[in-house]
UniProtKB/TrEMBL annotation:
<dbReference type="Pfam" id="PF19291">
    <property type="entry name" value="TREH_N"/>
</dbReference>
<keyword id="KW-0378">Hydrolase</keyword>
<dbReference type="InterPro" id="IPR045582">
    <property type="entry name" value="Trehalase-like_N"/>
</dbReference>
<protein>
    <submittedName>
        <fullName>Glycoside hydrolase family 15 protein</fullName>
    </submittedName>
</protein>
<dbReference type="InterPro" id="IPR012341">
    <property type="entry name" value="6hp_glycosidase-like_sf"/>
</dbReference>
<dbReference type="InterPro" id="IPR008928">
    <property type="entry name" value="6-hairpin_glycosidase_sf"/>
</dbReference>
<dbReference type="InterPro" id="IPR011613">
    <property type="entry name" value="GH15-like"/>
</dbReference>
<feature type="domain" description="GH15-like">
    <location>
        <begin position="274"/>
        <end position="550"/>
    </location>
</feature>
<feature type="domain" description="Trehalase-like N-terminal">
    <location>
        <begin position="2"/>
        <end position="121"/>
    </location>
</feature>
<dbReference type="GO" id="GO:0016787">
    <property type="term" value="F:hydrolase activity"/>
</dbReference>
<dbReference type="Pfam" id="PF00723">
    <property type="entry name" value="Glyco_hydro_15"/>
</dbReference>
Length: 666
């Protein structure tokens, strides 16, 4: 059985991302790319769907499962080497202590290295390798070879395992090699070895195309040193604080903080803030493809947003709205190269069909094909397991807005347009005008009838405003009169149909009386001020109607008659506006957007308290999921999620500026 979602750690070589459980099992690994079929898929099934376990024998039961409560295990601690994706897991047992170091070399090859070091006493280690391809469907043919290798001690013979099936192949190195199970039906390789204090055992698994020869062995010491250095060098580019200029859209603070607010501001210290931002930036960088610049929403597919439910999605794809936000965040914090990659990825993606930009693309900017159902049991029996995402076939009218707004912000930072960028933006503006009357499925990818969603209409307004600014402020050519005409029509329409004066708030879509979390985004594009009475009324309704008892925020109320969002059993069989039964779990990212709104409106005490609640959903490594079940007190949804970490960085930047202003005033 797979571990809890929050018990996993992400590794990355910026092309693929294995997940390692607290119990020492690599339960998820898509190679050679994030969006490849999984080679280890026990996360969505059983160990027989593929895994690689390294753990003290005393922690392993007769079925090969790790039980941390078994006699002999006294403690397990894990942590990343500072500002890296090099994971250390320290096992303390009754006979001794060992450290397992897991990492992916930042090389052209796709490899995972696992080093076992004896720290004290002696510890017997159990190893279980179950190699699978294509989401566990293909069991490779394994052969053992003795090959001549050379190292500092000279030439020697090393045994390797080579497995292949169709286009995929792997080579496994390490001494001792695990042996094929005597029960051939188990289709696994297992073994034990003992590590004493001062001893080291290295193991590696490298993917390669089956038509090629296996890559040569790596010098693990040299590779580990290089990997640590490269990650830390990247983190060293960090620009430590968002400046006033970067957050110029903040409303001015009109009063000094209260004593309670001063106390609240101490909750996240400066050192803790920078540690959290460093880790979140690393997560975003780790989920960006090194070559294409495509940012995946998450490392996984089909982890359920409601445990046991069917809200399962493939998030190993790239959403333009995430790329636009990541572009700004990377630029704000000194990572210009990544910002340039994201900019260029956006251009290549929308260039595929500028008249009909998609809301989701492949890692390389390609059109997402049909969704395929994968024959796996699912995480804790949650099905279906999906490869691909049908959201790519939906019309979502906000896409052009995200692209055009971020390019306008780049222009304001002095980034010049090139021969490709402005013509493509003009094409997007023509598409906004051409599709002006069309309804869409909304940012939440609703499966019901299309609507005029207030948020997406505002993003269309923002796209046109960005086009107008490009001409009026920056002197670029364009049909500015048409854009101004449609912009003004949209503004009138939104205030007429997207705002309910009786309720004193914006509404989810025209004709609705409900609110949703997307409305928190309206001030971010300048449609309304953060502290405008009408926005404050919207925030009040969102807090009252969409938060659970812990304060975490639901994206929307799926069923109007569902009055208690904490009652997970209520209307569990009733189909709601998103096409699914019941209510989805609270969203980590949406909650952080609420924190940001509160902070910008001087409600710092509330903001910091809610931020603490969100940080409490992260695991000890600082990784955030997509959603969180308050009733189960467990992370849910795909993991880790880039949008959650991007919004966390934004919130901490906002609080830095707001608290800095308050300190100056007091």
């Amino acid at each position: 059985m797979a571990s809890w979602i929050e018990d996993y750690a992400l590794l990355s070589n910026m092309r693929s991302g294995p997940l390692v459980s607290r119990t020492g099992s690599v339960d998820w690994w898509c190679a050679p790319r994030f969006d490849s079929p999984a080679m280890f898929a026990s996360l969505l099934g059983t160990p027989d769907n593929g895994r690689w376990l390294l753990a003290p024998s005393c922690a392993v039961d007769e079925d090969g499962e790790v039980d941390l409560d078994r006699q002999g295990v006294t403690d397990v601690e894990r942590f990343y080497a500072e500002n890296t994706f090099v994971l250390h897991t320290v096992w303390t047992t009754e006979t001794g202590t060992v450290r397992v170091t897991d990492f992916m070399p930042l090389l052209s090859r796709t490899a995972l290295i696992r080093r076992v070091e004896g720290l004290t006493g002696e510890v017997e280690i159990f190893q279980d390798v179950r190699l699978r391809f294509n989401f566990g469907a293909s069991v490779p043919w394994l052969s053992r070879f003795d090959v001549e290798e050379s190292d500092e001690s000279g030439e020697h013979t090393e045994g390797v395992l080579v497995g292949m099936a169709g286009p995929d192949a792997v080579v496994f190195r390490g001494e001792p090699l695990p042996e094929a199970d005597e029960d051939r039906s188990k289709r696994r390789h297992t073994g034990t070895f003992t590590v004493a204090a001062g001893q080291t055992k290295d193991f590696s698994l490298t993917w390669f195309p089956s038509h090629s020869t296996p890559p040569e062995a790596m010098d693990v010491n040299e590779t580990l040193t290089s990997t640590l250095s490269q990650w830390q060098e990247w983190s060293g580019l960090y620009d430590p604080a968002a400046s006033e200029t970067k957050l110029a859209e903040h409303a001015q603070v009109k009063r000094a903080p209260t004593e309670a607010e001063r106390a609240a501001e101490l909750t996240v210290t400066q050192d803790a803030r920078e540690d959290i931002i460093h880790r979140s930036l690393l997560v975003v960088r780790g989920l960006m493809h090194q070559a294409t610049g495509g940012l995946i929403a998450s490392d996984t597919t089909s982890l359920p947003e409601v445990l046991g439910g069917d809200r399962t999605w493939d998030h190993r794809l790239s959403w333009p709205r995430d790329a636009a936000l990541a572009l700004e965040v990377m630029l704000d914090h000194g990572h210009d190269r990544e910002a340039a990659q994201l900019r260029n990825w956006l251009l290549r993606a929308v260039a595929g069909d500028v008249d009909h930009p998609s809301n989701v693309y492949g890692l390389d900017g390609s059109v997402v094909g049909r969704e395929r159902l994968v024959d796996l049991p699912g995480y804790e029996r949650a099905r279906p397991v999906r490869e691909g995402n049908t959201a790519g076939s939906q019309y979502q009218a906000d896409v052009a807005g995200h692209v055009l707004v971020v390019f306008e912000r780049l222009r304001r930072r002095g980034v010049q347009e090139d021969h490709l960028s402005w013509p493509l933006q003009q094409g997007l503006l023509r598409a906004v005008v051409a599709n002006y009357e069309d309804k869409d499925q909304g940012v939440w990818e609703m499966r019901g009838e299309p609507q005029h969603y207030t948020y997406t209409r505002v993003m269309m307004w923002a796209a046109l405003q960005a086009g107008v600014d490009a001409v009026r402020i920056h002197g670029l050519p364009g049909d500015v009169e048409t854009w101004e005409e449609h912009r003004d029509q949209l503004a009138h329409e939104i205030w007429t149909n997207g705002y309910d004066p009786e309720a004193g708030s914006f509404v989810q879509y025209y004709g609705s009386t409900a609110v949703d979390a997307s409305l928190l985004q309206l001030p971010k594009v300048g449609f309304v001020a953060y502290d405008d009475e009408r926005m404050l009324g919207t925030v009040a309704r969102i807090q009252k109607e969409l938060t659970d008892r812990s304060g975490l925020l639901h994206r929307y109320r799926n069923l109007p008659e569902l009055t208690d969002l904490d009652d997970v059993e209520a209307f569990a069989s009733s189909i709601g506006q998103d096409g699914f039964a019941g209510q989805a779990a609270p969203s980590v990212s949406a909650t952080l957007q609420l924190v940001d709104q509160l902070a910008r409106c001087e409600r710092v005490e509330e903001a910091v308290k809610l931020l603490d609640t969100v940080l409490g959903t992260a695991n000890e490594l600082g990784l955030l999921s997509t959603t969180y079940s308050t009733s189960e007190r467990r992370a849910t949804g795909n993991f880790p999620q880039s949008e959650s970490h991007l919004n966390l960085i934004r919130v901490l930047d906002t609080l830095e500026v707001v608290q800095g202003r308050r300190a100056a005033q007091s």
